[in-house]
Amino acid sequence: MLEWLEVQKEKLKNESPRKRFIRVIIVLLLLIVWYEIPVTEHIKLKEDKISSPFRLALVTDLHSCSYSKDQAYLVKMIDDEKPDAVLLSGDIFDDRLSDDNTKAFIMAIAGKYKCYYVTGNHEFWSGRVEEMKGWLKDNGVTVLDGKCVSEEINGNVIDFCGIDDPTDMTDTKWIEQLNQAYSASSPEHYRILLSHRPERYEKYENYYFDLVVSGHAHGGQWRIPFVNIGLVAPDQNLFPKYISGLYELNNGVKMIVSRGLARESTPAPRFFNHPELVIIDIE
What we know:
By secondary structure, this protein is α/β, with parallel strands linked by helices. It has eight helices and 16 strands. The protein has a six-stranded mixed beta sheet, covered by helices on one side.
């Protein structure tokens, strides 16, 4: 891509203003299309509690966007990585787009993998959040709303904990859910918290989960190339801090933020910001 951009830059020098303008527009359109293509990002964590490696797929902010017929493109991305479980950290449904793409995706993966889900703000904005939770439960997905469930994976006991998005609840109620989920986990187990909101990191620093996974920030939507800086994110405003990748909080807890998979649901296209599936290897 960089070599191609350099070629276009050289061509611009020798063209008329009209041709130059047309070429710039074409380049911008091609870049927009290019950065709508999803990628798989890998993050590796070394943890003392783990006796044998396991792999998680993190899916956030799908917003019921389309990834080919029956979501086959996205499903293949996951199948190719052979995860032990799939984490669905909010905004898997959308409040404006049809549920069809989300339901096709869930029906394709829930029979293959253990799936754990928490709500995002758009599920609440839809006014149908309980209907969505019920459908997910009926189709084999574990819904975590102030809950924690233990699962044995490759000889490790993993506590999957989760909390609802705070859109329709007070901070007191949200903290109650967080306390409830944490209390149901064990310090002897590897503890993962699913929560949609990375900007609430200061709250997570009051607990000793081993890993927090989230989304919501869409990678900053328009990103500055070659550095982990985005333009704007919900609830973090301009040049947000927690948008993509691995972070370590003040209490040593690791937090992974996915750029998510939203495409046609967003008012502006992604720029220098591929949608992503995050694969987390823990060993």
